[in-house]
Each structure stands twice: as C-alpha cells, then as structure tokens.
Write a structure and sequence with these properties.
Elements lengths: L2 H21 L8 H22 L9 H24 L1
Helix pairs in contact: 1-2, 1-3, 2-3
Length: about 90
Amino acid sequence: MEISGIISAIVIGIVIGVLGRLVVPGRQRIGMLWTIVIGIVAAFVGTGVAAGLGVADTKGVDWVEWLIQIALAALGVAALSKVKVRR
C-alpha cells in the first residue's frame, strides 16, 4: 500500500467512524477520537474483508465495501461504548 492509499484510508476512516456512530442508536459514551480510531480500523479491516469476498474492486462506487466498513465501525462503536458503560 502506498502513502497516498494510507492517507486516503485515514480520511475515509474518519467518515466511516462518524457514519458508524450515527448508525448506533442511543447515546454513545465514547469521545470523537475513539470514534475516529474505530473508523480507521474499520476502514482497513473492511477493505480486507471486501477483498476476501471479491467485492473490493468494482466499477463505480464500491457500495458493498462501504457497507461492510460502516457495519464494522458501528459494531466497534457499540462494543467500546458498552465497555465504557461498565466502568
């Protein structure tokens, strides 16, 4: 992966994290920095999952890859929010 790919993954990860946070119902007890970190991780992992499923490179917008990334971000936000509530 080139540096431009890493930078674009970080920027997309920020968007993915915010969208994942919006998908989770209720109040999340985590900060925006954690949301961004979760989004970046979800972007990298989601791209790997999409590549494994063979849907990473399609003509036009990769909607399935985006949905996988957003779903992973939502799961991450919900999981971390539950951990923060228990403390």
